[in-house]
Amino acid sequence: MIELRTDPRQETVRPARRYWYEELRTPRVGVCLHYDGSSSDAGGLSWLLGVDVHASYNLYVKDDGSWGIIAPLHLPAWHAGKSRSSDPERMPYPNNMANHAFYGLAVLTNGQVDVTQPQVLTAAWLTARLFAKHGWSRTDELYRVTTHSAEAWRRGRKTDPEGSNARNPIMSADDVRHLLPMFQNVEAL
Ligand SMILES: [Zn+2]
After folding, report:
1. Is the model's pTM score more than 0.90?
2. Structural domains in the chain?
3. Higher per-residue confidence, 39 vs 128
């Protein structure tokens, strides 16, 4: 298997408010992918860091592949809302606790604009680093990559990160799953 290497630039950002929970109430079981719905990185990021957002992600990834942390990784971001496990056998969590069960990772784009190649590469690299942190296998536990659309309750309430055209998704869990086996030697995040 090819080992992919990438070293995307990390940004340091300062959110105006702490829109996340102060305590993790159920163990992490995976990574939940989103898009933020923004039409530009600059607009999306200033919204995410602003005083009125009342939402957050642990990680974001820009079009050029650079990335940053908004909600601290050890705390639950406000990213998923009402939720039920898409895979209760392998990723159990109490109803509506997806914020706690999953790291929230958002690509800064919307339902019309495809993710860029650097963006999906960084998203997969960050996901691999979270897998490394938990000792999750990057070949046998790919089900731990999930999406807001898969976890949202009721089903159909959210369409990210695929977008509203299911036949032409702007990004899917499989895009990230397919890259994960190629990141075996990453540092835990
Ligand atoms: Zn979402």
Report:
1. yes
2. 10-182 (3.40.80.10)
3. 128
